[in-house]
Amino acid sequence: MRVQTYFTKLLQVFSPLPVNFSREYEHADKQQLSRSYSISGTLCTPKDVQLKDVEHVQYLIHGVGFDSSYWDFAVPGKDEYSYVSAAADAGYTTFRYDRLGTGLSEHPSDTYNEVQAPTDLAIATKLLSMLKDGQIGGQKFSKVVGVGHSYGSEQVQALSATVPHLLDGILLQGFSMNAYVTGGKQLLTSGAYSTASQVFPERFKDADLASTYFVTLAPQTQQLNFWYFPFYSDAAFQRNRETEQPVTQGVLFTQGVLMQNATQFTGPVHVVTGAEDWPFCFLDCYAVPANSTRKSIPEYVQELYPAVSDFSVYIPENTGHAVNAHYSAPQVYQEMLGFVRKVLSG
């Protein structure tokens, strides 16, 4: 219980800070991290439909609380929630992977100095380079669309700023300019994050997870962060709860450092955020100041892309943060794939 007590105290320190938490709480010196990690990924190439182009791929990065199965979300007897299947039906190859500390990827014991946002970005950059160089599946991909969800979108956005030449377009799902101000802090405090092995002892008791791997405390706190009732099925909610993935203390407190101006990126940018997204829109994505030139909160993302002429936003109604698990998912996928089609056919 001491770990939980200290973590809750950190939340109290973190929430009111107007600046980056790590810079306030940690020593300013940086340490070089040089490690090799085991990362689990899946490359899916359509077989039963006409492949649009063997050299094109969507690069999918999931967010907090999920592993890469977020993109292949499965409810027993249904395939309508799988973005991977929708993409395959449309003839597009996808690559998704479990972030460090989730799913079948490695779970390091140092959950602050190792499993944190800068490490995740370094891994994302390496895997993207491997895709381009033909080191994944033996196929060099000449065109890549980066697709993220929530914290995964923060990584895709950072990739467009740090390695813009490796991406031809990006799609940021469950994202807004509030990624640090409300996104991280809303998710942290309202999720009431607690030690994963205590919340789900039957799942994690033999996983040898450090006590600073966290999950949302209860179904109610997960609902508050990710879901918008009643526009999802009980089966989808239960499936997500049963498969919720842990997140480290390091990721929770450092995720806000990734977002940056992408001054050199010129490819198309598309933002897809549910109208009732809790972490990034506080349940109303149209709640902008009366004198604003923007019509919605996600539209402010354009400020990160001064060199982009093709910027667009889609806000599906009756949809919370976990976009892929709501009833609206099939329609959202078709809209997303319309953007992908435009990027890859251009």
UniProtKB/TrEMBL annotation:
GO cellular component: membrane
One Pfam family linked to the record: Abhydrolase_6
One of the record's GO molecular function terms: hydrolase activity
Residue intervals of the AB hydrolase-1 domain: 60-330
Record keywords, A-Z: Hydrolase
Protein name: Alpha/beta-hydrolase
